[in-house]
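pinging the channel bc i need a second pair of eyes. not urgent but kinda urgent?? the chain im working w is below, pasted from the shared doc
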Amino acid sequence: MTNENNGRRRVVVTGLGAVTPIGMGKKEFWENSLAGKSGAGRIKGFDAEQYDTKIACEVKNFNPLDFIDKKLMNRMDPFTQFAVACAEMAVKDSGLDLEKEDREQIGVIFGSGIGGMWTWHKQMHTIYETGGPHRISPFFVPMMIADIAAGYISMRFQVKGPNYATTSACATSSHAVADAFMIIQRGDADIMLTGGSEAAICPMGVGGFNAMKALSTRNDEPEKASRPFELNRDGFVMGEGGGMLILEELTHAMNRGAHIYGEMGGIGLTGDAYHITQPAPGGEGAIRSMRRCLKDAGVAPERVDYINAHGTSTLFNDKSETQAIKTVFGDHARKLVVSSTKSMTGHLLGAAGAVEAIIAVLATQENCVPPTINYDVPDPECDLNYVPNKAIAKTVDVAISNTFGFGGHNASLLFKKFKEKP
């Protein structure tokens, strides 16, 4: 069973796991996305009163001990705790019996844009407040490094295929999913555990983005602060959490009777080569990313029904992404629907791509599209159908998830309804 255009092995999605500001697990996350629930509130993880931004989308009701024993938990940064939790959920959801699998044919690619920022923060306090370098924890480095989540996941499930992390700012976990897709296509693995996590709502994380003037300061109305594509947007709202997808070669999945959520059809990866933070004019890099994605999938633009936008709620991103969509899809841009679930989850940075890919996959299965909430006053320069404020029922045969990161990293992932015969 080969891909319809290029003879490569077909790749399907067979498991999903999510830790997000609007829900734990696939079911709660999806239901709250459709309900338009905001995950934003006043920051509780530290005292943010001196900060310009005092709000964020923090994960609620997460108990790492539900997934990790206490000793190991104390040796993990929160981003790794989120990662292991996502992996547990996704593997369980997939129905995989790992005792019956060739573990050398199962790999892990799991990224983080920043890594153990809370660990760095706490250890810096240790060195300056308690008398010097000899008080640094021996676990500092393995808790901090961004690849450790992928390592822990592989050890947790004793899977020994390709194993590494991606780091490309906000495009991190989309790159992880793209790499996992290619590895299965070329036959180097049959199953990949892939996604990303982030836990950067900490003093340096919020302070750093404040220094860049990137965050919303709508502190009196946290739930209304993330407003992608809306005229009065004033910056993004930081989020945290993680997402994992189980990607699997089609024949392998069918032979074990797996539930198939959808098929991953193609990827588009480009670089702006323009600016460290601003997108290229007119969304030039995003244009090429989506075009490459469509070409890789062998899908005509008019077949796309839904785009889960990067949609950060910043002035430049939302405008340039809108321009890019109109350039790529022409007249069809007015017929497809676009939404930014960051309006609810906030911006999960390196975890955004995986979490939003889950939305794209579920949209194709459930034929529903989550809204862009807080869409009150249209921006004349952002003039597409952003599914304002309420989810809609819509047949979604093909969906694209976009992510664009600081440094000019662009990634587009295409998912489609699974059909045994393409």
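so Confidence is low (pLDDT under 50) at residues 1-5. and The radius of gyration is 20 Å. — does that match what u expected or am i reading it wrong
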